[in-house]
Amino acid sequence: MISDVITNGINGEPKIPGDKSISHRSIIIPSISNGICEIDNILKSEDVMHTLNAFKSMGVDIEENEKKIIIKGKGLNSLNEPKNKIYLGNSGTSARLLTGLLSSQKFNSVLIGDKSLSSRPMKRIADPLAKMNAKIYTTNGSLPISIEGSNLKPTDINLKIPSAQIKSGLLLAALNTEGETNITENKITRDHTEIMLESFGANIQTTHKNENKIIKIVGQRELIPNNISVPNDLSSSAFFIVSALINERSSIILKDINNNQTRNGIILALKKMGAKIKLSNNRKNNNENICDIEVKTSNLNGCELGPEFADLMIDEYPILSIAASFANSPSIFRGLRELRVKESDRLKLILLNLQNCGVNCKSENDDLFIYPSANYKIRNNLIQTDFDHRIAMAFCIMGTKIGPLHINESSSINTSFPTFKNELNKLGGKVF
Ligand code: S3P
């Protein structure tokens, strides 16, 4: 894919797809509920389809039509043993959440994935599950994972790594486990699983003690079916938000965007940089906060963000780094270690590709330093993505300012935002 410089700004109202995290959960939780659920606006991307196909392969009846999917839940403990290994493509969320869920089912299963997913750490979910007596066998800490389904032991677990995927895998394991499991986290991670489980009638309660959040879940209460309308994805919106901020003569409006406070770091960070971003029409849907977002071309200042921002926006550092490259002063983003174990080593690729674009930047101890300049002299216009969708989309936005940039292996964008290129071009982008 090639992304070239645009001249007349980014203008209009892009259609942002459904939220990826909520879409995965909108398949998993209804599939183990006790009845029929209608899901509206689900993200039809490769990652989410891997979750959907996994549940089909375990006997869940899922009807897909143009806009909605209809899931006939089988209950907490009635999934069928899949005939084949479950292939999860590039999707870390599917892998971590399913590892938890399947460890407490009554059959054995094997999870496999593509090259990138097969190199990502899975002990982080297998180890805490082992405390519940789960029988999980990783391959040198990664996929393929073999899971021997069994009755688990309710346990108190402190989350060592701040990760919604780990927390959610544990919650899904605890759901089908007799007794009380308590999960304690001392850093914020996205809470879509807790919100959705509560709305499906799970016996789940959250309390806060000092800096900690404790989630108590009493297992084996059947889930009541519920309909879900998936809000649009803030992480996908971020590419359009930054493109409007850094390009002259731009003004966009994004509708029905999820504005969950465990995930809105990108809005807070950009506002701190002086971005003209206005949130309006705040409302709730299925207990998730939703709003509309208006964005206009802005003169951005650099900023320093502490590691607490990483908890609220880990997926947004690639595109935030592009914004920082067009600010009028340097930026420092601290505490980005988790970026190294995403779909790629994102810290490495942000640095490599920014440097190839002529941006002066460095990392020290997982902190990222960006020193912007008024003009960039491209050293190499081939962007290396290692099949990482967020690196590909972020540097596509970079191309709108300094292109043409050639984005390698850009098909990875289909994992989260299949209509990205069309939407960008509708607003004035030049991507082909
Ligand atoms: C996700 C959690 C985050 C995020 C990922 C989606 C989720 O991962 O980066 O894109 O849906 O729970 P971690 O749990 O590894 O932080």
Write a structural description.
The chain is of the alpha/beta class and 432 residues long. The protein is 31% helix and 26% strand. The chain folds into 2 domains: 2-17 and 231-431, Enolpyruvate transferase domain (UDP-n-acetylglucosamine1-carboxyvinyl-transferase, Chain, Alpha-beta prism), CATH 3.65.10; 20-229, UDP-n-acetylglucosamine1-carboxyvinyl-transferase, Chain (Alpha-beta prism). α1 runs parallel beside α6 (192-199) and α3 packs parallel to α5. The longest helix is centred in the C-terminal third of the chain and has 14 residues, at 389-402. Bound molecules: shikimate-3-phosphate (S3P).
Q: Strand order within the widest sheet?
A: 22-23-1-24
**Number of helical segments with 4 or more residues:** 13
Any low-confidence stretches, pLDDT <50, length ≥5?
none
Percent range for helical residues?
A: 25-40%
Per CATH, which architecture of the largest domain? Alpha-beta prism
Shape assignment: globular
Largest sheet: 4 strands, mixed
Can you give me a brief rundown of this structure?
Helices cover 31% and strands 26% of the residues.
How would the blueprint of this fold be written?
Blueprint: E1 2-4, E2 11-12, H1 20-31, E3 36-40, H2 46-57, E4 61-64, E5 68-72, E6 86-87, H3 92-103, E7 108-112, H4 123-131, E8 135-139, E9 142-148, E10 156-158, H5 164-175, E11 180-185, H6 192-199, E12 203-209, E13 212-218, E14 228-229, H7 234-246, E15 251-258, H8 265-272, E16 276-285, E17 288-296, E18 304-305, H9 307-313, H10 317-325, E19 331-333, H11 346-356, E20 360-364, E21 367-371, E22 382-383, H12 389-402, E23 405-407, H13 420-426, E24 430-431
Parallel strand pairs: 2-15, 3-14, 6-7, 10-11, 18-19, 22-23
Antiparallel strand pairs: 1-23, 1-24, 3-5, 4-5, 7-9, 8-9, 11-13, 12-13, 15-17, 16-17, 19-21, 20-21
Helix pairs in contact: 1-2, 1-6, 3-5, 4-5, 7-10, 7-12, 10-11, 10-12
The protein binds shikimate-3-phosphate (S3P).
